[in-house]
Batch of 3 targets.
Target 1
Amino acid sequence: MHLCYCHSPFRYAWHERETALAEVGAAARPALRGVLAAIRRWDVRASVRVDRYVANSQLGRRRIAEAWGRDAVVIPPPVEIERFAIGAAQEHVLVVGELVAHKRIDTILEAARRAGVTVRVVGEGPERARWATRFPEASFLGRLDDRALAAEYACARALVIANLEEFGITAVEAQAAGRPVVAPRAGGTGETVLDGTTGVLLDEVSVDTLAQALRYTDFDRMDSPAARRNAERFSVAAFQTALRREVGSLTGA
């Protein structure tokens, strides 16, 4: 039996193919287009060998259906909730992620500038130098170890996410630390964040909508223990129980 836990079909061959093509020079695009088409054909052939797919979110489930014509059970991935603790919020907001263009962190930084909110950014990537030059008022912390990252979550006013995530583990980590999340309503964050209770979900993510959320949301009224309780739905134990059940269903055990 072959059970596949799938976070996403290969994004650059499927739903982000145009992004991949845009990241290379015009002369290389025909060759890359051919390579991606070959990968898609191979991917479809390989997908037939899987007996059952498990997706990490409803968005992942839809992408599996679009790419391979297969349905999937949804089991959210495990988050180490016990690593995080509720702390005292300060005035800045937090961004956690790879510093690459598709994460849209520059959109967050511009929105924070307009809202008059300071930002601390955790992560590394090819865009760091450019964004650090463009937004000197932001603090770029680089990669942090687990303990330092947990401390950053605990003292942030809120975590801000701009891009569409299949699941979005940082949103759950922030809530495990009692902190609210500003994120898209679409994608995984729409399943992990309770709008108005543990965060703010945006139908459209732009500089303007993010700036309004950062300027006018009363994050202090959002209940930290409620955020923690919501995050516990995605614990390691919950994942293990659900995955064991799915394996047992497939094998008849």
Target 2
Amino acid sequence: MTSRSVTIVGAGQSGLQLAIGLLEQGFSVTVVSDRTGDEIAAGRVSSSQCMFDEALTHERRLGLDFWGEVCPDVDGISVAVPLPPQDGGNGGFAINWAARLERSAQSVDQRVKMPRFIEEFISRGGEFVVHTATVDDLERYSTESDLVIVAAGKGEIAKLFCRDAERSVLDGPQRALALTYVHGMRAREDFSTVGFNMLPGIGEYFSFPALTTSGPCDIMVFEAAIGGPMDRWTPGISAEQHLETSLGVLRDFLPWEAERCESVSLTDDLGVLAGRLTPTVRRPVATLLSGTPVLGMADVVVLNDPLTGQGSNNASKCAASYLDSIVARGDRAFDAEFQQSTFEKYWEYAQYVTAFTNSMLAPPPPHVLELLGAAGSAPELASRFVEGFNNPTTLFDWFTDPDEARKVLDTSYASSR
């Protein structure tokens, strides 16, 4: 058993998962949060958080699978690209297929999950402090703990972590984002999916079943091209206006999805969210005025657009990677070199998630549309793409490189003859 101590600022997926993992390894762990569990439960939704099997496995290993019997399964992924109007649109599809995941995904509202994780952390011996941490507090934590980790992606302390210009290829928001949590969406007839709809030049829309504070629900996620015809959510509108805006977008651009939503209602007035973010990779080690390094994690240092649904998956995998590195360090100092190498180990994976997500934000190149089109008649190809959401490294290089894509397409076409 170790007597080493760690302070983690932030009580989200990454911070709490890492904290509980460290407790299991004998560390003394303090988590600092700006909200209590009850305040999180009573607050606004913060994400869509569809987690795939590899990320969920990290939770299971720590005994954190509390919703397996009550959370609706997400059994697969469906992809739809409508025909443009000049090619017979208004209901016709250029691409329209669905494929099952090898193991189901799951989305638990963070207003449900984080309070339960906080309870578990405290019950296992962790110290939970409710306080809005400042940079001065980080100085104090660094004298009281062997390692300080920042897992809170907003506020004053997040600004300590500078943008990495070499790894950040985008310099502004790429989409206007909107989340809408609803009851009453008609289920798909075959199996539940992340229903991914691409409207080239306009935006994207996807939905999937989830568990929220009032029970099973569906989450609608809109990704509107900024300034385009889907970019309709204005600041200050009511929750009902947000819902009507969401339904109006479906009626205008995705009538097949609007049909599933004829009887929907909001889960609650705080079940909506709209905004924009700039995908950014930041330098993972910040140096305090005292010269002490602190380590950033998850969204603090690698923030991706939600388009590929990787945020909570990244958070879980970052926590698992950091846990391995911290435990393997033994009794050696958690110095700046260690902190940088800890991030680099995680970046070996996260770089592929970032590249995949950024590529999906760009207009789809011909080889991507051809791959997605061919998947409709090639089940092995469809499954290969779908499993890429579980582990995006498996999409490289065949999904991102036109030459490699051609090899896969040739094989798919040959096997379908």
Target 3
Amino acid sequence: MNRNNNNRQIAVLPEPAQVGALVVNGAKHFVRRNPIITGSYFAGWLILLLVGSGTQLTAVQLKEYNNIMNTINLQIEYDAAGEYGRTRQAYQASKGWFSCDRMCQRLKIRMQDSEQELAAIRKEGQARMSDAKAGAGLWSEVGVSEVKDSFWQYFASGKTFAKRQSTWDMMFMGMRSMARGRDESWIEFGLKLLMQVLLNFSVGLVMALVMFVVGLWAVVRSYQPNPLLAAVFFLAAAVAAFSFVATYLMAVYGAAAASVYGVLKVAETSARAQLANDQQRQRVGPNQARPHND
């Protein structure tokens, strides 16, 4: 009697060399279809290599920069901010839901005066700081360092958003899986979670890039450059930031793809071993079950 119990088919994964060839062909196709994006990517890395940390200040520039920055009295701004906070708190405590008596009106005027004073002090400090930056120059180590610090702050915020969102997604996906009675394998659950984590990182870092570009112009304008220089620096910084974020996301997606490929390879090897064991048992079984003739 023929036994055809092993009709299972095992999906054969391509070898690493074949996967590498597919990736290379896909990259070539993307480059041909999107020359502007590809050109911007490589231009961004070229800008990062050429600009580096910016031009170093001369001794005269450094002295002038420090002299102007030392004229900014932070203690006055700190005191003004404290006064505004106290007057605002007093005003908030005196007013009713829909009314404001004479005492409340006097506290409101006092709060408005302290607010205007704080705004004037901050405006003066920002003007002096802008003069110091103008003396240093937009392409100097001061300007480049400020832009880099701004980018890293947004970048860190984007990663924090992705990690926090992934934690919540993992918790809710686990709860939904338990509610369904765990009718999916751990591989399926892991793949779903991985896709959600990749989506969170993509959204978080793209949002961080957009917010950085939006706030970049305020940083550029504070150095009082000429319009052409400002436009060139703004475009260069935006392209460089795009290149770094794209590289980071490609690295994350590449690591995830390699991990998935490794897990599937292990599953394929295990399935092959199980199938071989089943076939071996079927071949040995009839010999062990021979009837005895008396």
